[in-house]
Structures are given as C-alpha cells and as structure tokens.
Amino acid sequence: MGGIFGVCMEGECVTDLFFGTDYHSHLGTRRGGMAVFDGKRYNRAIHNIENSPFRTKFEDDLYEMKGHMGIGCISDDRPQPIVLNTGLGTIAVVTVGRINNKAALTKELIEDRGAYFTEMSDGDINDTELVASLICSCGSVPEGIKHAQDKIEGSMTMLVSADGGIYAARDRYGRTPLLIGKKQDGVNGYCASLESFAYINLGYRTHYALGPGEVVFITPDSMTVVAEARKQLKMCTFLWLYYGFTASDYEGVNVEEMRNRCGRSMAEQDIENKTTVDADYVAGIPDSGTPHAIGYANRSGIPFARPLLKYTSTWPRSFTPKDQSKRNLIARMKLTPADALIKDKKLLLIDDSIVRGTQLRGMMDMLLSYGAKELHGRISCPPLLYNCKYLNFTRSSKESENIARQAIMKLEGTDTVTDEQISEYTEFGSAKYLNMVEDIRIKLNFNTLCYHSLDGMLGCVGIDKCKLCTYCWTGRE
C-alpha cells in the first residue's frame, strides 16, 4: 500500500509536508520520500524506513529543504518521488496503487515513443516513473494524467507537482480516498492527502473530497477542478476494516465508528445464530481489532479487557521482514501479556481479518501457555480468498498461502482450487462454508470460531454496497 501528501502554501511548506507525510506511516513500511520546490529547483530526499521511523530518517532534511510547494509519500514499493525534466517542464510525481498491465504499457512507450526508464531498483521499472512517462506522452500535465488513468489497469492515485501548483488525481474507480484540506487562521494554503486526519493538527480543515477519477489543481490560494469525477465508485472496504487510521473518514464514514459497528453486528450475529459463548472478557487483537472488540463488548454485555498489550516503541510492523520466522518473532515480541487477565480466563478474541493465520496461531499458543482456559475467535470480515489486485493489500505473495484456501484445498483433496469450487464455500452458513471454518478453527486452536458475514460487514460501512470493492472475499468487484 502507501500514502501520499502534498502542500501548496504561502511561505515555507516543509514542516507541514514533513508531518503530513509522517501521518501516513501506518500505510507503508519500506520507503519514505519528499520533494520540495523552491521556485527554481526541486530538493528531493528518499530514505529506507524499514527499521527506523520516517521522522528519524527525515529530521535532518526538515532543516535543509526550503520551498512553498512539495509532495511526499510513504511506500511499501519503490523509491518516490520521481523528479523529471520534461517537455512539459520539471515535474515531481508520487503515486499509490498498482499497475497490472505494466509490461504492455512499458513496451508501448518504448516502441512507439522511444521512452526509456532509469529507476530500476529491484531490477524492475519503478511504477511512478512509468506513470510520469505516460503523463509526459501528452501535450499537457492534465491531459497526461487523464491519459494515464485511462491506460492503467489496476488503480493509481497520484500527486503531480507542476505548472506552479499540485495536481491531485484520485484513481478512476476511487479505490483509495483523496482529500483537499484548506489552511486556516488567515494563512493561504491547501494540502492534498490520502488520510483525512493527517492535516487536522496542522491547521487545515477538509475543503473538498475528490470523486473517482477526479483531478483538481491546488495553488496557495485556490483549488480548481480540472477533470470531473466519474460515476462508478469501487472504494476498498479493507481500508475501513484494517489499513485506515481510526480517526479518518472515507466517503463520510469514520473508520472507528465503522469498526465499532462491525463488533456490534458480530455480537448480534452470534445472538441470532445462537453461537454466543460464556466468556470472561472480550479482547481485540491489537491494534485494529480493538475498536471491533469494543463494539462487540458494548452489544453483548461481556466486559472489554486488554490481555495483550502492544509495545511499539522500538518494534517495526510485524509483516515488514520477508522471512516468515522473523515476522512471527517480531509479532510475538510486540505483544506483552497481562497475566491477571489471561490465567484461568475464557477469552473472546476479535481480529479484523485472517490471511495466513501463522501469527494468530502463535498468539493463541502463547495465551494458552499463560494459562488461558478457553479461546474463542470472532473475525470482522469473511474469509479472505483472493489477493488484492488493485492495492497490494493482502500480506501474502501467493493466494495458496491464505488459510481459507488451504482449508478448501484440504476439503476438496486437491493442490489447487477453481473459482467455481471456491464459490461453493462463500455462502455464509452453508455446509461447505461451515466445514471450511471448522478446519481453520482447528488449525488456529480456537474453541469456537465465527466470521462476520459479507452482508453484515458491508452493512456496517453504511454506504451503497455497489460502491464497495469486495474482490478479496468474492473474486468479484
């Protein structure tokens, strides 16, 4: 995934850019970058943030960069921003998303327009440089942005610093949000941000929310719509469930409130299906499971507690290392047990989702070793069956690693499964669905395990279900 932030203002923008970009650190763990324009040239800095936070790596840059306009990013992918001297002038670009037809676009640009690519880290073309090349193949930056949006299969939200301002463009189906904040207290300035909370403490208030495929242009004293929003919206539901920060709003729906509703809905689902359990405490798997657990506790009447406390002062995010054993070690080291809330207790644990289940199984084994009497699992979304092909959300490189797919393959007695076979396991409450969940329950060492239904989860978002992407659960948008 990743996050992007940009600022145009009277006077120095670097402090706002620094903190606004840093506020997107929960969306990526690999690299951070900033590019600031001082009226003559761009000053760019890119650092690896896998083992150190953004603030630490960029603290010196904060004092060296000068300018009234800049863009920044947090990325799980290749280095950004890209700065290019082009026929359209010198431009800087940051992006978040995924290009599924990368090879075809690269071939077309090289063969038809003689393009070439220099950012070849990891032996592959940098997605953001490819986007920049698509933009520069047209006669103007706005025309180039619309061309890139039309050509790219996948999803691509971007900020382009050019023409004395910043173009902010939301991906054409609106899978990721993009908002414009306006500076308050008599200072002229605008910012563009993926997360709505990222600019509040910097003295901005939400001025405009871009629609799918919409492009706007901001300067220190104005915001202009360059390309109107398209009609079809397919917002990523997983942003509300897990990746998004709890203070943010997407399509007018607050993340924390949505997660609370999810927990309440799961409690009601248990009551309706007679799957309630006699537990001493409801607990969330830190951090994103916590608001779901609060909602469940408030509806069920079971007290909320925190038997696992997260220590994040020095530990990076658990899925940063490529090696699974290191991920498991870091996940365990980050969570410290509160013994009095575990020993001889029956715990109902709520998590936002399960991908591989490896870390969750380790957590269950740890709780049992500390004397937990019973462990019951409630998962806020349906079983994940497909890797995201739009935003790289899924934390496994192969779909066959997903614990739900593994359960289906075991039940079907095959090494691979077809979409048709998978569809037979997605009907909530059916015999095959229950067999799949039971297999997962056994693997994870739960006494009981229930997933939230798809309809229940989508209903908790509170907007038209047709405007939400459900690909990772259904294989369909």
Would you write up a description of this structure?
The chain is an alpha+beta fold and 477 residues long. The chain folds into 2 domains: 2-233, Glutamine Phosphoribosylpyrophosphate, subunit 1, domain 1 (4-Layer Sandwich); 253-474, Rossmann fold (3-Layer(aba) Sandwich). It is built from 15 helices and 23 strands. The protein is globular, with a radius of gyration of 23 Å. The two termini are 18 Å apart. Mean pLDDT is 91; it is low at 317-321.
Could you outline the blueprint of secondary structure elements for this entry?
Layout: E1 2-9, H1 14-22, E2 31-37, E3 42-48, H2 54-64, E4 69-75, E5 82-86, E6 89-99, H3 102-113, H4 127-136, H5 141-151, E7 154-162, E8 165-169, E9 179-183, E10 189-193, E11 204-209, E12 215-219, E13 222-227, E14 235-236, H6 238-243, E15 249-250, E16 253-254, H7 255-273, E17 281-284, H8 289-300, E18 308-310, H9 324-334, E19 335-337, E20 346-351, H10 358-369, E21 374-379, H11 403-412, H12 419-423, H13 431-444, E22 448-451, H14 454-461, E23 468-469, H15 471-474
Parallel strand pairs: 14-23, 17-20, 20-21, 21-22
Antiparallel strand pairs: 1-4, 1-10, 2-3, 2-4, 5-6, 6-7, 7-8, 8-12, 9-10, 9-11, 12-13, 15-16, 18-19
